[in-house]
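User: Could you check the structure of this?
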Amino acid sequence: MKSRIERQSEKADARLALKNAGHRPVASNRRAFHEYNIEEKLEAGVSLTGPEVKSLREGKASLQDGYVAVAGGEAWLWNVHIPPYGAASYNNVDAKRNRKLLLHKREIVRLALKIKRSGATCVPLNLYFKGARVKVEIALVTGKKLHDKRETIRRREADREARAEMKSARRR
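Assistant: Sure, the predicted structure tokens are below.
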């Protein structure tokens, strides 16, 4: 039988391993990379309820229509879909409710100024676990025009072809 100190040590080791586990991705907004030019990225915490975190641990979330808005001196994450956790009973909340972003005041002010001045938008790019905490990577973005999207696709295909050519040349 293990002593109390050994059990506490094991629990501490497990907590430390969980904390140092690194980024565990839950959802990403791949469409944002196609639709927008990314100007600046920022990491923020998200204020969630228990069943929402459990739902995220199952890997369920959608960032497709999500965006960040600053209201009342606070940053809010809008239209991010986190489905209800199946095993939760009465604690489940609305799947598309607004969620508060945990940022420093100066980051919120700077974000609000950039959105207002430059006409940029702020969208979530990735939702992930950093240790036991849920983090969201948000970005200030500007919209791409149709010709910009075509140019991006053209450049990506050219890079892919060049890589394939170099790979086949190495094999010879």
